[in-house]
Each structure stands twice: as structure tokens, then as C-alpha cells.
């Protein structure tokens, strides 16, 4: 089980490096295919520049010196596909029934172009027809007002929505009377937020970009930065070049962590001089990280106890005494844990664990980064807390060059949370009520999983999606489709056509909005919006491209006009003024959200401003008022004989549910997404071989078997007992009931499956 995978020196193999010419070629291809080259070149030059717009690609922060960079292949793709010249307007919808559109794949839907007009579904013809904005808002307002309770409405948010739009959206929803704000975080980093809040009192990462410059060791756990956070490779490359150790903890040896050529460093690109990135690769079995990190904690404790000099030289005793709680119970639990269990549940040998523990012990400053490989696991919260336990043992939180770094996904997913997009009363609930003169609801609302169940059961009847692609991003696709179809009204505020537009309630609306790169001009002049990156830096973003259509509204304008239709002319909130001048929204935010005083002035500073992080200052705002060591048993995740642990991943050519192309260059997959990766020996045992076609079934206790058909098998370097494939194609396999303890995040990284020859029943 990947026991021999650790290796100390990766050979310099440029052909297999991430980035480089391949990245440049791919950027040019995607950009040229989508729009006029000149316009795109101008657009790209403005990505992440002080007076430009925030890259919609990911939440990795921008360096202070923006002259140096900053766009990457995949950010360029996201921008190019948003700036496409192709249009999806009334003619397109007249031509295609919704049933036809539903039959197309995600790549086809994304390829059709930008939405240009508000559209309303007409059941009689099974088509979308043009509707005026006023009629659309009136329809939504009427349906909301007709509900028996505000809690029959669901307001979903995806993480591209700006701070300004998110703040108004939650204000509108809470004034209406509900906390039903499920968001993409529920599917994403929720486990990180829950784990960190309990352990260190704040649900965000404690590091800044500068910390990467002085870390001695960086752990990259359950994350594929080469594809999903390409600009992070720049930091990892610099760290590797100055001799920092980089440890990849991942069932796969992802290409971006093997070697990297910076696509904007001309000489390196042309000569193919790649930098090896990870110094160590550990390949646990899927879901094996809790055992793995518990093993590392146990080795640190053993090193301390073997140290004849006594206390203080291995553990950071002063830190533990002054800042933490629960250490003795934690140490006692580690002493009792067996090596046999650690090895069998992690899939990693003790010898390898020792090697990694040495890296940790030899480093004065350690950063631990992680993403979906840890969060989308049943034991994700406990696993992240075990990573934090390890850091706490040596005081690796709250000092330069060290800390916890959950690497966020969507470019403003963290900001949306800060603005109150959360399914319970936000921390600033009282203030919100005071400033805007109402009584905010106090009950717990629906997260994504609860919202699906509520729509299925008829407890929720109106669905509004502020961005995103709810139908495709969620688990249990068959059930989710039925849930959405059971609604009286489904509404999607979107830039591009996607699956969710084809899964309609009895009534349905598509409301097209401006994208990040587009000019947002109101009667008060050009507007900017703000976002918060993964490291809590808030900065402004202003697009300059001409909007894809004259009929588009901005997200803030959509919320304001809907709110006015809903609350009527008697409502005192200045919705029209908010929509006219976003500075007034920011003044409202400054009045309500902690940390945003003087918002309008501070956001003018180049690079924005840092919100701060109490844990970084060693102030612990959790229940215990101290960083908490959390004891967790190692779960037994053994599957019945014959089953594999399937993880669902992103290819290099997609942005979540938007599929730009069918290649996954760094995993050597061309022109195909219907693939499943598995170990050659696991295939052989099943009478299968590379290239065979299979159906995949998933198995949950007391539930009917779920099944997807006709996937191509790829023999791959993956631990025995594990398999991988792409999201969203595999989402029909994930049971709505398979969720992470404590965070309710769907378990999309450990789906119990069997493979069987295509078209045949299981033997
Ligand atoms: N180009 C591009 N950029 C993106 C996105 C995109 O789709 N495309 N999506 C954005 C979003 S919303 C997010 S959340 C991030 C996602 O960023 P990632 O988390 O990097 O995305 P995934 O493709 O889900 O990759 C998960 C990684 O975890 C590993 N893994 C899976 N299971 C386990 C496990 O049990 N243990 C360990 N140790 N590793 C495991 C997988 O092998 C894989 O390398 O990227 C963001 N950036
Ligand atoms: N099996 C499995 N499922 C997963 C995951 C997984 O790893 N495996 N990952 C999960 C994760 S981490 C996440 S974050 C979710 C993502 O879930 P979502 O955020 O809901 O999905 P996206 O695919 O990012 O949404 C794409 C759509 O957003 C719209 N859009 C793009 N830009 C804008 C904009 O500026 N404004 C508005 N209003 N709309 C815009 C476009 O219409 C586009 O079609 O998926 C989750 N689902
Ligand atoms: Mo995400």
C-alpha cells in the first residue's frame, strides 16, 4: 500500500514537469479559441493588478509586488472562457428544449457561451422564453411572499460572489426571515472551518504569503496545486530552491509537486530547466491521513521521551503550557495507540513515517497546507485537528514562517462567509438587526445537504442560486435533480449555461449577470467590488471589458431590485442607492462586520488590507480560550472484500463543474473524462486491464446500489484498494447520507465502489 513511495530526491525530469511550455501552449489555445486575441491579451494584463480585477480562478493570494506576475494557465482559462464571444440568448433557447439541453454534457453546456437575457421556463413548450427583469423580480417576490414560512426558501451562494453582493444577499434573506444560506463552503472547506474553530478559535488559516518565504518545511496534504492553485507553485518553487523541505501527502504523486517550470520565466521555460518541488512523497490510502498524522504525533512524543536531556528540547513546552489545553490526555492517547493500527489504517510504513517525522523535527518553522483530500472525508474534521495537534506540539502556530493553511477554492468563498453567508445567525447578527432595523432570525437554517433533503420532502419550495451550479456540484445527482424539480420555483443568477438550468422547478428563471472581468458602470460611475483571499487579505476588483450583453445586471443590482420587489416601496433600506454606489454598501458593511471599519478608505491601499487572525497572535477565541489538543481514535474504514475507495477529482481542464476541455495533461489523459484510475494489481484481480470499459457501482449500507456506466479503466500509480475519477461525472455515486462528522460535508473522496465489466451485472 504505497509503502515504498517515500523518496528523498526526485530526479530533475523536465519532460514531466508542470508549467513550462505545455502551460503556455495550453493558455494560448484556450484563449485563442474563446475570443479575439487582442482583447484577451489586454484582459489578461489586468488580472490581479492593483487597478485590475481579481482573478476568478482561485483564492490563492497575490504577492505584494504585482509587477512580477500574476496569472497562471488555469486563471487564464477561467478568464478566457468568461470573455468568450459566443452568446446564449433567446434564439438559442428557442432552438433547444430543456430536455435536449439536459441531455448534453457539461463541456457542451459550458461551450455555448455567455447568457445574455433573463429567461423564464415555459413548461408547455419545454423551453426558456425571454422575460423582462421587472417581471422576473415580481415573480420571485410573489412566490416568496406566498410561502407558508420564510424557511421554505433556500438562498444558495457560490464563492465567486463579491463581498458587496454577498452582504446584501444575506441582508435581504434575513430581513425576509430565514437563515437558509447553504453555500459551496458546505461542499468544500467546511471541515476546515469547524476543525479550526474548535482547535484554535478561528475558522481561517493562520499564515500569510510572507510566511512561505521563511518556512523550513511545507506539508502539502490532499491538495493538487499544479492544477488547482498554480500560483502556489511559485511559492513552493522558491521554497524548494532555498532548501526548504516540501512533503506531499497524497495517494497520487501529482505532477505539479514533482517538478515545475515557471511559465513566465522565459529562460527556464525554453531550456526546460524544471525545479523539483516535493522532497518527499508519502502516499497514504484514501482516508488514511488521520492515522498518518496520529503516527507523526506519536513519533514526536517518542522523540521527546527518548531525549535524555529531558523536557523542552523536542516539544515546545513553554508554548504548550502557556497556550494549550488537553496535552496530557492527548499524550496518553498517543502512548496507547498501536503502530500496527497506524500502519494498517494509513497504508504507510513506520519506516516512512519516521522519515517524515524527521523532516518535521528538523524544521524550526513548519506550514501545513491542505485542501479537499482532507475536508471531503467522513473523518475530515478529526483529521484536520490531528494536523493541528502536530503543529501545536512544537508551537508551530503564531510565529513567522509557520502555521495552518487551508487553501481555499473559489476566489471569494472566504469573503462570502465573512459577509454572513452561513446557515445560522452570523456573529454580527445583533448589529445587523440594529443597523438595518429588523429582528434577524435566530434559528439554524439549511446547509447544502439539509437543503436538498428539504426540497425533496417539500419543506423548501423556492430555490435561489447566487452563482454556482447546484445541480451538478452536489452529491447524489438523481436525488438532487428530483429535489430541485419538486420546487415551485428555481432561480439561477449565472454567467454561463450549466446543468442547473436544465433541472427546473415548476417555474424557473435564469438571471444573467456581469462577470469579474466586465465593466460595472452605474449612474454614479464605474464601480468596483471587493474580495477576500485565502490569507484574509481584502482587496478591490474592477473589470474593464465591455459586458457580454446590454441586458446583464450586476449581482448587487439583482439583489437590490429583488429586495425592492419583495419588501415594497415602504421598506427603508436604501436598495436603489446601494445599487447605484457600492461605496454605500461598504459603509453598511463597515457598520456591521467586525474588522471592516473605514472599509472604503482601507480598500484604496494598493494590495488591500489584512483582516488579521487572532490565532496568529496566539489569542484563542474558542470555548477553552486556549489552543486545544483534540483526542481522536483511528477509525476502522475497512471496506467489504472487493470494494475500492474512490475519490473524485478535478482534471486540469475544468473549473469545478465547468468543463473547458477533455484533457488532463498532468495525468496523461487525452480527450476523455469518463475514466477511472486504479492500481494494476487491483485491476488484474478483477479480471480487468488498462483500457477496459467498466460500470461503477457504489455501496452504502441499507441503500440501493447507485451506478454509473461505461468508464474506461486506467492503470495508475495509486495505492492498492484505491481508485479515482472526475467530478461531477461521478457525483451520482455519492449518497446524500455520506457526510463528514461535524461539518456535514459530502464525502466525495471515499466512495465505496465496485468495478464490473461494462453492461454486465456484478458477479
Ligand atoms: N483550475 C482549477 N482551479 C481550481 C478549481 C478547479 O476546479 N480548477 N477548483 C477550486 C476549488 S472550489 C477548490 S475547493 C480547490 C480544490 O483544490 P484541490 O483540493 O487540490 O482539488 P481536488 O481535485 O479535489 O484534489 C484533491 C487532492 O487530494 C488528493 N486526495 C484525495 N483523497 C485524499 C486522501 O484521503 N488523503 C490525501 N492526503 N489526499 C487525498 C487527491 O489525490 C488530489 O490531489 O481548487 C480551486 N481551484
Ligand atoms: N464529487 C465532488 N463534488 C464536488 C467537489 C468534489 O471535489 N467532488 N467539490 C466541491 C467544491 S470544493 C465546490 S467549491 C463545489 C462548487 O460548486 P459551485 O460553486 O456551485 O459550482 P461551480 O462549478 O463553481 O459553478 C459554476 C457556475 O457559476 C456561474 N458563474 C461563474 N462566474 C460567476 C459570477 O461571477 N457570478 C455568478 N452569479 N455566477 C457565476 C456560471 O454560470 C457557472 O456555470 O463543488 C463541490 N462538489
Ligand atoms: Mo471548493
Sum up the structure in keywords.
Rossmann fold, globular, binds molybdenum atom, alpha/beta, six-stranded mixed β-sheet, 4 domains, Dimethylsulfoxide Reductase, domain 2, 31 strands, six-stranded mixed barrel, 763 residues, binds ligand MGD
List the helices and strands and how they pair.
Elements: E1 18-19, H1 20-34, H2 37-45, H3 73-82, E2 87-88, H4 90-95, H5 98-102, H6 106-111, E3 114-115, E4 119-122, E5 127-130, H7 133-145, E6 153-157, H8 163-176, H9 190-200, E7 217-221, H10 225-228, H11 230-241, E8 245-249, H12 255-258, E9 259-261, H13 266-271, E10 275-276, E11 280-282, H14 289-306, H15 317-323, E12 324-325, H16 327-336, H17 339-346, H18 350-362, E13 366-370, H19 372-375, H20 380-393, E14 403-406, H21 413-418, H22 429-436, H23 448-456, E15 462-466, H24 470-473, H25 477-485, E16 489-494, E17 507-512, E18 521-522, E19 525-526, E20 529-532, E21 537-541, H26 555-567, H27 575-580, H28 582-592, H29 599-602, E22 609-610, E23 627-628, E24 644-649, E25 654-655, E26 658-659, E27 675-678, H30 680-685, E28 693-698, E29 706-715, E30 722-726, E31 751-757
Parallel strand pairs: 1-9, 2-3, 6-15, 7-8, 7-13, 8-11, 12-23, 13-14, 15-16, 16-17, 24-30, 27-29
Antiparallel strand pairs: 4-5, 4-17, 9-10, 18-19, 20-21, 21-22, 24-31, 25-26, 27-30, 28-29, 28-31
Bound molecules: ligand MGD (2 copies) and molybdenum atom.
Amino acid at each position: 500500500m504505497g509503502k515504498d513511495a517515500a523518496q528523498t530526491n526526485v530526479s530533475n525530469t523536465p519532460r514531466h514537469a508542470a508549467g513550462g511550455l505545455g502551460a503556455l501552449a495550453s493558455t494560448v489555445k484556450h484563449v485563442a479559441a474563446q475570443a479575439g486575441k487582442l482583447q484577451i491579451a489586454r484582459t489578461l494584463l489586468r488580472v490581479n493588478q492593483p487597478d485590475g480585477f481579481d482573478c476568478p480562478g482561485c483564492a490563492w493570494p497575490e504577492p505584494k509586488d504585482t509587477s512580477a506576475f500574476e496569472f497562471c494557465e488555469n486563471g487564464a482559462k477561467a478568464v478566457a472562457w468568461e470573455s468568450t464571444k459566443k452568446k446564449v440568448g433567446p434564439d438559442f433557447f428557442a432552438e433547444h428544449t430543456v430536455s435536449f439541453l439536459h441531455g448534453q454534457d457539461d463541456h457542451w453546456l459550458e461551450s455555448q457561451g455567455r447568457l445574455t437575457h433573463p429567461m423564464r421556463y415555459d413548461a408547455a413548450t419545454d423551453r426558456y422564453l425571454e422575460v423582462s427583469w421587472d417581471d422576473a423580480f415580481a415573480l420571485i417576490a410573489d412566490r416568496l411572499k406566498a410561502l407558508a414560512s420564510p424557511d421554505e426558501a433556500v438562498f444558495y451562494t457560490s464563492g465567486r460572489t463579491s463581498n458587496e453582493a454577498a452582504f446584501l444577499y444575506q441582508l435581504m434573506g434575513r430581513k425576509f426571515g430565514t437563515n437558509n444560506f447553504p453555500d459551496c463552503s458546505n461542499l468544500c472547506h467546511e471541515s476546515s472551518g469547524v476543525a479550526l474553530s474548535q482547535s484554535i478559535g478561528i475558522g481561517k488559516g493562520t499564515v500569510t504569503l510572507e510566511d512561505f518565504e521563511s518556512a523550513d518545511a511545507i506539508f502539502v496534504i490532499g491538495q493538487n496545486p499544479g492544477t488547482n492553485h498554480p500560483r502556489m507553485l511559485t511559492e513552493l518553487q522558491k521554497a524548494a530552491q532555498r532548501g526548504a523541505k516540501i512533503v506531499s501527502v497524497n495517494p497520487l504523486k501529482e505532477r505539479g509537486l514533482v517538478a515545475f517550470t515557471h511559465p513566465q520565466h522565459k529562460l527556464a521555460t525554453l531550456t526546460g530547466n524544471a525545479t523539483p518541488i516535493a522532497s518527499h512523497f508519502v502516499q497514504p490510502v484514501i482516508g488514511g491521513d488521520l492515522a498518518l498524522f496520529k503516527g507523526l504525533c506519536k513519533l514526536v512524543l517518542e522523540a521527546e521521551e527518548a531525549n535524555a536531556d529531558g523536557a523542552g528540547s523536542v516539544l515546545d513546552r513553554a508554548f504548550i503550557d502557556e497556550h494549550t489545553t488537553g496535552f496530557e490526555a492527548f499524550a496518553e492517547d498517543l502512548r496507547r495507540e498501536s503502530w500496527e493500527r497506524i500502519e494498517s489504517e494509513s497504508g504507510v510504513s513506520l519506516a516512512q513515517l519516521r522519515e517524515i517525522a524527521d523532516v518535521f523535527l528538523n524544521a524550526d518553522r513548519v506550514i501545513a497546507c491542505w485542501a479537499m483530500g482532507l475536508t471531503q472525508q467522513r473523518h475530515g474534521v478529526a483529521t484536520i485537528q490531528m494536523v493541528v495537534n502536530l503543529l501545536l506540539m512544537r508551537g508551530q502556530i503564531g510565529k513567522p514562517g509557520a502555521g495552518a493553511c487551508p487553501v481555499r477554492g473559489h476566489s471569494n468563498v472566504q469573503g462570502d462567509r465573512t459577509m454572513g453567508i452561513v446557515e445560522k445567525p452570523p456573529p454580527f447578527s445583533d448589529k445587523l438587526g440594529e443597523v438595518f432595523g429588523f429582528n434577524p432570525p435566530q434559528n439554524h437554517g439549511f446547509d447544502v445537504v439539509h437543503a436538498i433533503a428539504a426540497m425533496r420532502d417539500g419543506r423548501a419550495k423556492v430555490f435561489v442560486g447566487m452563482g454556482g451550479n447546484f445541480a451538478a456540484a452536489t452529491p447524489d445527482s438523481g436525488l438532487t435533480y428530483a429535489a430541485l424539480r419538486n420546487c415551485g420555483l428555481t432561480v439561477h443568477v449565472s454567467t454561463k449555461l450549466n446543468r442547473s438550468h436544465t433541472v427546473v422547478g415548476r417555474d424557473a428563471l435564469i438571471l444573467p449577470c456581469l462577470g469579474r472581468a466586465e465593466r460595472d458602470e452605474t449612474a454614479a460611475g464605474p464601480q468596483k467590488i471587493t474580495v477576500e483571499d485565502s490569507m484574509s487579505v481584502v482587496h478591490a476588483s474592477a473589470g474593464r471589458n465591455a459586458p457580454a450583453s446590454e441586458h446583464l445586471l450586476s449581482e448587487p443590482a439583482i439583489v437590490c431590485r429583488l429586495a425592492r420587489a419583495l419588501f415594497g416601496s415602504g421598506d427603508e433600506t436604501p436598495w436603489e442607492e446601494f445599487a447605484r454606489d457600492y461605496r454605500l454598501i461598504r459603509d453598511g458593511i463597515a457598520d456591521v462586520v467586525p474588522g471592516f471599519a473605514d472599509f472604503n478608505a482601507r480598500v484604496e491601499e494598493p494590495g488591500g488590507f489584512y483582516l488579521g487572525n487572532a490565532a496568529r497572535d496566539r489569542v484563542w477565541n474558542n470555548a477553552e480560550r486556549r489552543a486545544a489538543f483534540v483526542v481522536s481514535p483511528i477509525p476502522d474504514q475497512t471496506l467489504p472484500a472487493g470494494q475500492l475507495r474512490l475519490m473524485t477529482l478535478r482534471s486540469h481542464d475544468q473549473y469545478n463543474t465547468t468543463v473547458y476541455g477533455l484533457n488532463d495533461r498532468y495525468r496523461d489523459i487525452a480527450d476523455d473524462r469518463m475514466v477511472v484510475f486504479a492500481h494494476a494489481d487491483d485491476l488484474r484481480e478483477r479480471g480487468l486491464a488498462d483500457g477496459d470499459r467498466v460500470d461503477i457501482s457504489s455501496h452504502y449500507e441499507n441503500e440501493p446500489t447507485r451506478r454509473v456506466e461505461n468508464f474506461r479503466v486506467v492503470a495508475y500509480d495509486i495505492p492498492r484498494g484505491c481508485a479515482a475519477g472526475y467530478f461531477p461525472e461521478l457525483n451520482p455515486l455519492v449518497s446524500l447520507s455520506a457526510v463528514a462528522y461535524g461539518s456535514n460535508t459530502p464525502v466525495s473522496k471515499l466512495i465505496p465502489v465496485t468495478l464490473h465489466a461494462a453492461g454486465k451485472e456484478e458477479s
